Amino acid sequence: METVNLRRHLHANPELSYQEYNTAKYVAETLRTSGIEPTEGIATTGLLAEVKGKNPGRKTIALRADMDALPIQEANNVSYKSKNPGVMHACGHDVHTSSLLSTARILHEVKDQFEGTVRFLFQPGEEKNPGGASFMIRDGALENPRPSAIMGQHVFPLLPVGKIGFREGMYMASADEIYLKVIGKGGHGAAPDLCVDPIVMASHIIIALQQIISRNANPRQPTVLTFGNITGHGATNIIPTEVNIAGTFRAMNEEWRESALVKIKKMAEGMAEGMGGRCEVEISKGYPYLENNPELTRRIRAAGEEYVGKENVVSLDISLGAEDFAYYSQVVPASFYRLGTRNEAKGISSYVHTPTFDIDEDALKLGPGLMAWMAIRELEF
Ligand SMILES: [Zn+2]
Ligand SMILES: [Zn+2]
C-alpha cells in the first residue's frame, strides 16, 4: 500500500504511549503483506522484523520508528482526522511508522542486491517516561547480533519539505523531571512570626537553583533548568503549609547531569532547612542525551546528499528537546536525522505537539526511499 494511505490510517487511529495494540497489529499485517514476518510483543506493543540480503551475516544495521500518539485533541479538518477523541499523532510518529513500513517493503524487494541484514524496530512509548526504547533494548532489540549502526528519522516542521537535516555529535538533551515540596508552617498572613513561610522559601530556592546553571555548569555545554509549575494554596491573608514546584532539567553531558541532580537536591534541602522548614526533592529520571556518532552521521549524510542533492541537505542546530532514541545511541553508533515537512504555501507550519500540527505528505515520497538508500550505503561500508 502507498505510504500516504498507511500514514492516513495511522493518523486517523492514534493510540497513546504503551497502548499501541491496534497500531502494532496494523504494522504486523502490513509487514506480512510485504512478505516480511515480524516478531510481535517486543516491549509489549513493539515489533521487530528483519530483511536479509545476500550474505546476511556480514553485517546488521537497524532502523527505528516510534508508534505512539499524544493526549491532544486534533483541530485539523482533514479527511484523515483522528477518530479517537483527545488523542492525536501530533509528533509525526504516524509518519515515522508508515515511512519505515515502506522502507522495509523497498528493501525486501531489492534484497538480492545488497549484502547484510536490516533490522526494523517499531517501538512503543516514545513520548512517555521511561521511554519505549529502554524496553526494546531490555527485550533484546540490539542483540543477536548487535547491529553496527542504528538510524532514526523525525519529522521537522521548521524544515521545508524536500529537505533533510543531519548533525554530528551531541544533538538532543537528557530530560529529568524535578519535583520540590517546600514545607513550612502555615498561619495568618498578618502573623508571619508564628509561621514558617513556604512561599518565601520556595522563591529563594527557585532563584538559587538557577545559579547551579549559571555558576556550576560548563558554559560551553548547553543546559537548562525550568520550573513551569508552582502551587501554594494560601490566600491574601493566609500563609500556606506547603508549596509544590515542578520543572525540567536538561543537559548534554551525562557526568554533568548526574552532578547537577545531586547539587539541585542538596541546595533545595539546605536552603529550606536554613530558613526553618524543609524541602522534599523527588527526581524522575528521563531519557539520556542523544549523541549522533560523527562517522556514521558523515556516511549517511553523504548517502542522503546522493539521494536528494547536496543543496537539499542542511546541518542541524543542537536541540534541548529530548528523544528516547538517545537510549540506542548509548549502546550502538547511532544517528538521528530530520525529514522536512513544512510547506507554508499550503499553510502547513504548526510545530509538533500542537492541535494543528500536520505535514506536507510530499515528504512521504522522499522518506522511505531515502532511508532505504542510506541503509544500503551503510551496509556497503
Ligand atoms: Zn513528541
Ligand atoms: Zn516525536
SSE arrangement:
Elements: H1 3-12, H2 21-33, E1 39-42, E2 46-52, E3 60-66, H3 93-109, E4 117-123, H4 132-138, E5 149-160, E6 164-166, E7 169-172, E8 174-183, E9 187-188, H5 198-216, E10 223-231, E11 238-239, E12 242-251, H6 254-274, E13 278-284, E14 290-292, H7 294-308, E15 313-315, H8 325-329, E16 334-342, H9 363-380
Helix pairs in contact: 1-3, 3-9, 5-6, 7-9
The site of one zinc ion has 4 residues, from loops.
Can you characterise this structure?
The structure is a single chain. With 381 residues, the protein is α/β, with parallel strands linked by helices. Helix content is 33%, strand content 26%. The chain has nine helices and 16 strands. The protein has helices at 3-12, 21-33, 93-109, 132-138, 198-216, 254-274, 294-308, 325-329, 363-380, and strands at residues 39-42, 46-52, 60-66, 117-123, 149-160, 164-166, 169-172, 174-183, 187-188, 223-231, 238-239, 242-251, 278-284, 290-292, 313-315, 334-342. The strands form four sheets. Strands 1-2-4-3-5-16-6-15 form an eight-stranded mixed sheet, sandwiched between helices. A four-stranded antiparallel sheet has the order 10-12-8-13, with helices on one face. Strand 1 and strand 2 (46-52) form a beta hairpin. The longest helix is centred in the last third of the chain and has 21 residues, at 254-274. The radius of gyration is 23 Å and the shape is elongated. The two termini are 31 Å apart. One zinc ion (ZN) binds at residues 91, 127, 352-353.
